[in-house]
Each structure stands twice: as C-alpha cells, then as structure tokens.
Amino acid sequence: MRRALIFTGLLSLAGACLLTQLPKAAAQAQQPQAQKQPAPPNSAQQPPAQPPQTLPTLHTVVIDAGHGGEDTGARGPTGLAEKDIVLEFAQAVASSLRSQGFEVVMTRTGDTDPSLDDRATIANAQPNAIFISLHVGSSGAVGTVRTYTYLFPATPQPALAAVPSASPSAATAAAAPQSTATPAPAGFLLWSEAQKPYVAQSVKLGDLVQVELAQKFKGSPEISSSVPVAVLRSVAAPAVAVEVSSVAADQQKLESLTADLASSIARAVAAYKTIYPPGGK
Ligand SMILES: [Zn+2]
Questions:
Q1: Does 8 fall in a domain?
Q2: Cα(18) to centroid of ligand 1, in Å?
C-alpha cells in the first residue's frame, strides 16, 4: 500500500513540475565536508586549558521556491502558476524561521529561475544548514501536503550506467568503478551524489516536517516519502521537498494555507535543531 502511494507521489511530482528533472551540468567533484575543522597539527603541544570544541549547531535554512521565470511549474485551470504561489509560501516560511532565530537564505526572491545546480550551489555554500524546496503539485486532495526526501537507487552499478551522456564528468566517473572501486578521490563526492551521505538525516528532517504538516493539513500522510526529487540530489546537507496540493485550487484557497504551512515547517525545523548532528551527517 505504502509503495503504491509513493509511486503515485512520484508520478505526481514528475507530471506536476520539474522536480524530477536532471541538473543541466550535473557532475563535478565537490567537497561537501569542507566545513569540517581539521585537527590542528600541533594540538598535542597546546596548553591543556583549551576550551572544549563546540559541536556545530543548525544555523541556516535554505528555502528554495521551486521554478520561476519561464519555468512556471504546474498550472491551474484558472492560470495560477506554481512558481508564484511557492514564492509566497517561501517568503512566509522564511519569515517564520527568522522569528525562530534561524538565518534564512533563499534560492530566489523574485521571478527568476536558478538552475538545479545553482540552487544546490547556494545550499552547499552555507555551513550548518538544511535545505527545504517548496512546490505545489497538480494532483492530490486540495489542502494536503507531502514531504519528500531523495531516493538513490538501491544498487549503485545500474545507476552509474544510467547517467545521461549530457553529463560528461559523470559518465567518466561511471566508467571508473569497472577498474577500481573508488569512483571519486577520498574526501570527495560526486556532485550528482552529494546528497548521499545525508539521506538518513534528510529522512529524519522530512518525517519531523511531515508530522507537523499532518496535524494541520488533514488527509496528509503521517511520514515523508523517498523519491528521486532532482533538486535535492546535489545538496550536501539534510534536504527535503514539500509539495502542497494543488494548483487545481483557486489562489485564495492556496493562500489560506500559507500561515499553517509556515508555522508547521518552522516548528519542525526547531525540533530538528535539537537532533542536528555534528558534522552534518
Ligand atoms: Zn514544482
């Protein structure tokens, strides 16, 4: 039953918007752990009165309003465009998070269309951050909301072979494992797989978000789902996508969801902060 629901969700995302679109230039090596502080080389010789190393705490929330510019996202029967309503949602979510003391970075604040790589690049530049992408689907019961995390294929070999030829570096990297088991140098991750070390944390974040949403938006699932949401794939941080149903509703109805959406997400992020892991894993 759950499988069926997830599959439906995937179809809905794929049909509704470009969540499942692959990045335009997907593959380049990247070092998502750059924020980690290496141990000082002379630490053994330093005075013992050093303050204890403080663990990183969740500091920044990157809010991604999906689509924008020529990419309208899903379109409703009255011409309502997903790109416009998600920007309103994003601004409200940002405001709620700021009132909780979080730093907020938005991937767009106007009618622009940063590429998926641009959005991931913005996220990956922030230390101690999480990423939340906002969407409005074209299906689903009006007034329900779903949270998604990225699902990598269970078996890596076929996935590597399936990298499109438009991504030359990924194709090169995909060839490497045939002779060696190391697709990327130690300490590096493929850009297209930057989310991989964060999947478990993303699910924790996604479930916290979905639990809050389910309380306000009746008929929503109780937990998050995992699907290949392309915008999350290259984010080197806990990352989720939240999709509101749907553009079939009129603008007034969707706008009436804004306050609860913003407060639910802010509460979930505050809860996630208490379990935010050192090192971002
Ligand atoms: Zn979308």
A1: no
A2: 6
d(CA 65, CA 87): 5
Q: Which of 142-151, 165-174, 208-217, 247-256 has the lowest mean pLDDT?
A: 165-174
Query: Per-residue pLDDT tens for 199-230?
Result: 999 999 999 999 999 999 999 999 999 999 99
The confidence score (pLDDT) of residue 10 equals 38
The answer to whether residues 27 and 163 touch, using CB atoms and an 8 Å cutoff, is yes
Kindly state the tokens that stand for 128.
């101690």
> Is 190 strand, coil or helix?
strand
Distance 76 CA to ligand 1 centre (A): 13
Rounded distance from Cα 271 to ligand 1 centre (Å): 26
- In CATH, what number is assigned to the domain containing residue 119? 3.40.630.40
Ligand 1 centroid, distance to 229 Cα (angstroms):
10
Q: Is residue 61 part of a domain?
A: yes
Average model confidence (pLDDT) across the chain: 80
Task: Give φ, ψ of 187 to 5 degrees.
Answer: 90, -5
Ligand 1 midpoint to CA 114 (Å) = 13
Distances (CA, A) of 206 to 201, 211, 213: 8, 9, 10
Return the sign of the alpha-carbon dihedral for residues 29, 32, 35, 36: negative
- Buried b or exposed e, range 139-157, using 16+ CB within 10 angstroms: bbeebbbbbbbbbeeeeee
- The domain in which residue 121 lies consists of 55-162+187-280
Contact status, residue 141 vs residue 135, Cβ threshold 8 Å: no
